[in-house]
Amino acid sequence: xxxxxxxxxxxxxxxxxxxxxxxxxxxxxxxxxxxxxxxxxxxxxxxxxxxxxxxxxxxxxxxxxxxxxxxxxxxxxxxxxxxxxxxxxxxxxxxxxxxxxxxxxxxxxxxxxxxxxxxxxxxxxxxxxxxxxxxxxxxxxxxxxxxxxxxxxxxxxxxxxxxxxxxxxxxxxxxxxxxxxxxxxxxxxxxxxxxxxxxxxxxxxxxxxxxxxxxxxxxxxxxxxxxxxxxxxxxxxxxxxxxxxxxxxxxxxxxxx
Length: 257
Known about the structure:
Radius of gyration: 22 Å
Largest sheet: 7 strands, mixed
Number of strands: 7
C-alpha cells in the first residue's frame, strides 16, 4: 500500500523470467545490488510473482524504533553477525527456507563498488544456506534503479522516467557441492558459481560483457594500501636526496603536521 503506488509512477518495468520463480516450496533468490532504491524495486517484482521475499538484514536494525517495527512486521530476517558460528548467523534464513518461504540475498553484502556497476565478488552466506538446505537458488539481475538513484546519491533523477529491468534465470546448479565437507574453498567456489550466474544475466540486460575478473573490495584495499606505502617510501627517498637545509625544513614541517 505504501511502496507500490510511487514505484508504479516513478519507474517503468521490463520484467522477465518470472516463470523461473518456484510456485511453491522454499528457495532463495540472489540479486545484484547497485542502488539504495533497488530493494524496493526488486521487492515489487518479487511480490508480483506471488512469492513474497524475506530480505536478510543485520540484527541491529530490528531493535530500532519505527525501522525495527517495520522490519519485524514485514517478516524480514535478522542476520546475527556477532555469532561465532557462521552457520548460526543464518539460522533464521535456513528456518524460513525449510518452512517453504523465499529468502532474498544480496550476496555482495553491500552496494557494488565496481565503477561500472557490475557485480562484485560475493560473500558466502547464500552458499551456506543453499548447501545446508539444498534448496533452489534463483539468480536475478536488475538494472535501472541505479539510474533513478545512483549509488550514494542523495537526490533521485526522476526525469526522464527510468526503466527497471529485471531478469530471473533458472536455478544455479550447485549439486556438485552437495554432501561434501563445507570448507572455505568449497564455499568460495559455490559463491563464484552464484555470482557468475547473476553476472551473465546482467550482461544480457545491458547487452555488453562484464570484466573478466570481478571487482574485489578486499583486493582493492590491499592494492590501495600498497600504493600508499609506495608513495610514502618515495616521499622519504626524495627528502633524503635533498640538500641538508631543505631536508631538515621538510622534516620539521612533517613533524608539525
